[in-house]
Design goal:
It is built from 4 helices and no strands. By secondary structure, the protein is an all-alpha fold. It has one domain: Orthogonal Bundle (Non-ribosomal Peptide Synthetase Peptidyl Carrier Protein, Chain A). Helix 1 packs across helix 2 and helix 1 crosses helix 4. InterPro entries: ACP-like_sf, PP-bd_ACP. It comes from Photobacterium lutimaris.
């Protein structure tokens, strides 16, 4: 599932890059700056990417996952600062959700 989530995230970033003045350069892999002073994403682009990933997770895995709230967006060490940080953040949220679902079942 790790690779599938990374692929969804990269696809969402690449789709959003079409609307940016300068596309996100993913050549640095996990260290690619996203939502930082050095990154190319603004808040609207970030929210669009998050919404796209949420939609794809729902479509491919069959459950809704809320990836961000005000607390997450306002964190001093943003989980959206780099590709690697965002990928890890999504995986953590997904694993937490799967654990909750398993406990409910």
């Amino acid at each position: 599932m790790n690779k599938e989530i990374l692929d969804l995230l990269i696809e969402a970033i690449e789709e959003q890059s079409l609307f940016l003045d300068e596309p996100v350069d993913l050549s640095k892999g996990s260290d690619t700056a996203l939502y930082t002073q050095d990154g190319q994403l603004d808040s609207l682009s970030l929210i669009t990417i998050i919404a796209d990933v949420e939609k794809q997770i729902s479509s491919q895995f069959g459950f809704k996952l809320k990836l961000a709230n005000e607390r997450d967006l306002g964190m001093e060490k943003s989980p959206f600062s780099t590709l690697g940080a965002m990928h890890a953040f999504i995986l953590d949220k997904l694993q937490a959700e799967l654990k909750v679902d398993a406990q409910v079942a």
